[in-house]
Write a structure and sequence with these properties.
four-stranded mixed β-sheet, 2 helices, five-stranded mixed β-sheet, 28% strand, alpha/beta, 19% helix
Length: 141
């Protein structure tokens, strides 16, 4: 199976070799396709403290106790190099809180501190924005 980078690079090579003969629409389509390739999310269920995966999805179960997720070390990575999702699996974040903790030297929302999640039933996604501001929340609404 080809890696994400291999597929992306193949599309970019196609763009480079097609520039002379392609229409602007064709080039825009190829560029959009190359930029839209992302690493797939691997999901797990977590009921005790854990270290999150850079492209992970985590169903967090705080039925028995509060849970802390430590984010992976991302220093030096470029924006977009990580995306993580957390889901309140048992609807218990309000009772037993969920904490998101940055890796040493990294930030969440530009701060070096933990984020307490205590909203029942919430699902949150974060994306790496770079060293200056660190992990940022993706909000839909």
């Amino acid at each position: 199976m080809a890696s994400i980078d291999t597929v992306r690079n193949a599309l970019l090579d196609k763009i480079n070799t097609s520039i002379a003969s392609a229409t602007p629409e064709q080039l825009a389509y190829l560029t959009k396709a190359a930029n839209g390739i992302e690493q797939s999310t691997v999901w797990s269920t977590d009921a005790v403290d854990f270290t999150a995966d850079s492209y992970g999805g985590h169903f967090v179960n705080t039925t028995a106790a509060a849970v802390t997720a430590t984010l992976p070390a991302m220093g030096g990575n470029v924006a977009g190099d990580g995306r993580i999702s957390f889901v309140d699996l048992a609807q218990k974040f309000q009772t037993n809180n969920f904490t998101i903790s940055p890796a040493t030297g990294n930030k969440i929302l530009g701060q070096d501190s933990d984020i307490l999640v205590n909203t029942q039933g919430i699902a949150v996604s974060i994306v790496w924005s770079g060293d200056t501001y660190g992990w940022q929340f993706l909000v839909q609404g």
